[in-house]
Amino acid sequence: MPSYVVTGASRGIGLQFVKHLSTDEQNQVFAVVRNKATANFLHELGRKNVTIVEADVTDAKALNRAAAEVGKATNNKLDYLINNAGSASFLGWTIDQFPNSEELEKDLIDTFRNNTIAVVHSTNAFLPLLKNGPTKKVLTLSGASGHLGFTLHANAPGMVSYSIAKAALNMAVAKFAAQYRAEGFVFLSICPGMVDTTATQTAPPSEGAMEELKLLSKGLSSVMPSIPAPISPEESVKMQLDVFNSWPAERSGEMVSHFGNETRWI
């Protein structure tokens, strides 16, 4: 019975990972959420092979408790970890437009904690179970904005703190890959594409998020004749898993798009 842990599983892409994976009754899926009580979409799913586990991914102790809970149900083994949890402030400012240095620093630190440190904590917490399992595969959701080539090619100055945090995240994944390559682990950072997650959003997009989208669109329009429409979470998850499940061990630690390359991101 293959076992999966998915973080940030209460909505959006994380929720879709849980839905997709749990359609196979042989899979054992553990959905990690910040608050069980508010994970309404997961409760509505009501699948016997889905277990909701509570942990804030920025809290290393909470993640260790979550890993212990998973271990009790899996004989201390885990096949796959999907690091989906993350957040972005999307303020709509470029790196020189923050009102003051204090706000810039706070946004950088908060976003780094939620997108980089959280993944390091999550991976470390579940590593002992992964080491005991036969598969040893870790997928981490990153973003094109954290890729240097994309940022320069698309002339994309926005999403400042998020982009910096995702770039650091990609290096963290590479560090795990370098350390555990000899043990047969496969780590992969992946961009999920431009995904329409509005169906499970708890609030409408902020004014800052709309400004970020304008900044990105302006840059992309200079290198792309037309920008494709967002894809569905279902399509994104299927494409990501197709790439992940076929990814070779000798390329562990790389960062690619949901197309499996570093040239096409949306």
UniProtKB/TrEMBL annotation:
Pfam families: adh_short. InterPro entries: NAD(P)-bd_dom_sf (IPR036291), SDR_enzymes (IPR052184), SDR_fam (IPR002347). Gene3D superfamilies: NAD(P)-binding Rossmann-like Domain. It comes from the Eukaryota. One of its GO terms (molecular function) is oxidoreductase activity, acting on the CH-OH group of donors, NAD or NADP as acceptor. This is NAD(P)-binding protein. It comes from Favolaschia claudopus.
